[in-house]
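Before going further, learn to read the protein records used in this course. Taken together, the C-alpha cells spell out the fold as the letters spell out the chain. A record is reproduced here so that you can trace the correspondence yourselves:

***
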Amino acid sequence: MIYTWIRLLLLTILFCANNALAQTGPTSQTATAAPSPSEKLSSGALTTSKISGFTITAENLYRDLEKGLVQISGNVQIIYQNQHFSADFVELNLKKKHAYFRGHVSIQTIEYNIGGDEIALDYYSSQALITNGYVQSNNITFKGKLIEQRGPNTFFVADADYTTCTNCPSTWSFEGSQIRAELGGYAFLKNTFLKVSNVPIFWLPYLVLPLKNERQSGFLTPEFGYIRNRGLFFSESFFWAMSRSQDLTFTLKNYELGGLKELIEYRYAISDFSGGQINLAHFNDSVIPKDLVDSGLMAEGDTFKRWAVQGYAQQEINDVAHARVKLNQISDLQYPKDFYEEFKTYAEGGLENRLNISARSNHSLTQFDSIYYKHLLESNPLQSNTSAVHILPELKLDFTTTQIADSPFYFKFNAQYDAFYRKRKWDDISVSSDQKYVSNVANDPACDHNNVAGCSPVYDGTFNQGTDFLRTGQRVFYKASFLTQTFTPVDFLNVSPELSYNEAHYFFPEGADRYNVRQYTQLDINSRSRLYRIYESENPDLKYKHELIPELSYTYIPFVEQKAHPFFGNIPNGEYAFSSKNNLADTDLNTPYGVQYDYYDRIYDRHLITLTFLNRVIRKRQSDKSYRNILDFRLAQSYDLYQINNPYSQTNQPLSDLSGTLNMYLGEFTLENQFSYYPYLSATNSTTAVSYLNDLQQYFKIGYNSNRAEGPRVDDVILALGFVTKYINVLSGFIVDTSENRNSDSRLKKFSLITQLKPPGECWGINFYREQQVGLEAEWRVRFDFSFDGKPPKIIPPDELKIK
C-alpha cells in the first residue's frame, strides 16, 4: 500500500514540473531545468510568448508563477480566443482570470470594439469596467466616463454620449446621465439632450433607441409639409413590432386646415401566402367640401366626421384552398380625392370590395366571388350608393386543358355564373333633344355634373321595357373548346388551332321578355415562326441571340344565334361590329347597342386578322447563366373583315391602329418607346424616353409625349436629372407643354424636386419633396431620416420622382 502512495507522489511531482516547463515560452525549448518562481522573460526588444491561451507580443514581460501574475508593457499586443487587446501596460491574473489594461487601451472583437484610458476585465465572464472609454459596433458608438460591461453584449454607461455618426465631433448625438444598452437590442437613455454639432437642441427625460437592424418598436421620425387646400401639416408615428409576424403603426397627423387625423396601419404575415394589411383613418374635419355647402346639405362651421377603411388579406385554408379579401370603404365620396396619398387609385370611378375563395384540384379550379362596388361618380359627396351594381355572387369553374385519350386533340371547359344586384332594379330613362339620361327631379341631363341642388334620380315604379335601363339580372355562360397539338406544316412554322362553342343565358327581373340566350361558335388559328441566329462576341463570356418572330392570328365567328332584346340594343344575333379595343362606357346609353353589365355581354372581333412582328436580341452571360433582353421591338395591326359588310357599322374602317413598342437596354442606358398610328386619321400618339442610371444612382432622362389622335393636342417634353454627391443628392424633373393650343399661359405643366441633404457623419439625412402642377399650389414635405442602426441613409431612387 505504501508503495502505491509513493508512486502517486512521484507522478504528481513530474506532472507539475512538466507543466511549469511548458509555460516558460518558446525560449525554453532547449532548457533542462525549471525556472524560478519569478522571472523576467523579455526586456527591450519585441518578443512573442504564449501563456495559458494568450499570445503576447510586447517589449517587456514579467511573470510570477507563484501568484499567477503576468505584467506586460511596451507596445502590448495580445490575442486571446476571438479578441485582440492592445495597451501600454497590461497585468494578467491567471488564477482569477482577470486582466487590467492601462494607456491607449483597445479591445477588438467580431461584434464590437472597446477603448479607454483604463479597463479592468474579467475575461472568463465577459465583464469589464472601462474608464473614460467607448464602445463601438458598426457605426453605433457610445462613450462615457465610466462604462460597465455586464455581459457579452450588455453595457451600462454613466455620463453617456450616443451617436451613429462617423465624424468627430459627431453631427448629432444623444447625451444622457446614463445609458443601459444591449447590442442587437435597445439603448435606454435617461435625462437626455439631443445635440447637433455639439449644441444642445432639446431635452427628453427618457429615450429608447434601437441598436439592431431588425424591426423594432419605437417612434418614427416626424414629417411635415404643405398640402393644397389643407395648408401646413405635421405627423408623428409610433411603430409597434408586435411579433415577428405582425406590426402596427399609429400616426397622428395635424392639418392647418381641418384638424387632427388618426391613422392606423396593421400588417401581419403568417406564412408565405397567408397575410394581410388594414388601414384605418378617422378625422373630424373642420373644412366642409364646397359641394356640400353649395347643395345646402352642410353649413360652414359644421364638423364633418370622415373616415376610411382599406385592407386586403389572403389566407391559405389548406393545400388546395385559399381565401382573399379586399376592402375599401369611405365616409364620403370626396375622401379619396381630398386625401389621394391614402388612395392610390382615387381617379377611378369606383372602389372595389371583394371576397374570393378558390379551390383547385388536379384538373380544375373552382372560385367563389362576391364583389361590392362603391360608386364614386357623383357630385354629392354624401350621395348614397344606390346607383352601384354589385356582383353577389360570382361562381367560376375552369377545367385545365385535357388530352382526349391518346389522340392529338385536347378539350377545355369553362363556366361562370353572375348575379348582378342593386336595390333598384332599373333606371328610369328620359329623353331631351334625342339625348337619353337617367330621370331626375331637375329634368336636366347634366344636373348631377353641374351640382344642381337636390339633383337626385326619380322612379315612377313602372318598368318600360323599350325605354328604361335594366341594371340587375343573372347570367350563366360557358365555353367548350377543342384544341390540337401545335403542328408544323413546314420546318419554320408552328400552327395552333382552337374551335370553341359559347353559350350565354340571361335572366332579367323585369319586362315582358325576361329570358335571352346567345349561342355562337368561334375559330381561332394562331401561326408563328421563329428565325434566329447566335453570335459570338469579343468577350468570351457573352453570347447574343437574334430572333425574328412573325405571328399571324385569325379569328372567325361563323355562327351566332340570338334573339333581339332591348338589353342588347334590339340588334339580332349580336351583329354590331365590336372590337376588343372598345371599352364599355355610360355614354353607350345614347348608341344603338345600349349598355350591358360588362365586357362579356358583347361579341368582339367577329372576323379578324392580326399580324404581329417581334424583333428581339437576347444576351447570355456564360459565367452565371443569366439572360437579358437588350432589344424588344414589336409591331401589331388588325384587319376587321366583318366590319366591311356589317349594316350596323357607321364607318368602313377595317384597319386598326398600328401599335408598336421599342425597348432597348444597353448597360446604363435605356430607350423606351410606345406608339399608335391611326391610319384613317393620319395621326400618331407616342411616348418616348431615353434614360441613364449608373451604380452610383447618377440619373438622367429626356422624353417626349405626343397626342394627335383624340382629345386636345399634346406635345410634352420631359426632362429629369439626378446626381449623388457626398453631402447632397438631388432628383429634379419637369414637364413642358410645347403645344400651341395649351389651356394655360404657362408652358410648365409639372415640376418635381427631391433633395436629400446628408450632413457629415453618414448618420442622418433630410429629405425634401416638392411637386407642383400647372394652375395648382405647390405641395411639399420634409422627412428626417435618422440612422439608428449604424447604416447610412439610403439613396432615394429615381422612381419616386413621378415624372412621366
